[in-house]
Amino acid sequence: MTETIKQYLDEKKGVATVMAARILNVPEREVVRALDEQSFEVSVSRFSEIMDDINEWGEILMIVTNGSVICEVSGELPKGTYSHGMFNLHSDTSPIGGHLMADKFDSIHFVSRPFMGKESLSVQVYDKEGNAAFKIHVGRDEKYELKHEQVERFHALKKRMMQ
After folding, report:
1. What is the value of pTM for the model shown?
2. Range of the structural domain that residue 47 is part of
3. Is residue 73 in some structural domain?
4. For the chain, how many structural domains are there in total?
5. Mean pLDDT of all residues in 124-144
6. 58, 73 in Cβ contact below 8 A?
7. 63 CB contacts (<8 Å, ≥6 apart)?
8. Per-residue pLDDT tens for 64-100?
9. Which CATH number characterizes residue 106's domain?
10. Which sign does the torsion angle of CA 130, 132, 136, 139 carry?
């Protein structure tokens, strides 16, 4: 199936991975894994460390999808804490908040892939069924360019995860 996914991605440059997964009838994680050098997979055991780092990046874009909705929220990622079996995000100043069932997560991917003609960098968390639990994208400035400091933070975190 990986070759079919790669062929589809080659033919449909820039297609959203969620849409490719839907069309190919595969879990989105399999599409992300087929991205080869555009995606680096990290053990879910590094989840807290990754979230703690992103907490210091400033305003990011968090995307959550389900079968019928793609929800995008920009804001600073709140410092997360574990309680009642969940990784909880709470802040009085950020619109990002909620309760993440981290025990259902299976893999984390650092994705560097053009989207809509622009460079895109994201940290994507997948559940055990291969669905995207959420994605955190490097933020953009008023000119819709990636925020330089966050690009550096993304690459530094990815490098640390590769060790």
Report:
1. 0.94
2. 40-162
3. yes
4. 1
5. 96
6. no
7. 70, 71, 72, 73, 132, 134, 135, 136, 137
8. 998 789 999 999 999 999 999 899 999 999 999 999 9
9. 3.40.1570.10
10. positive
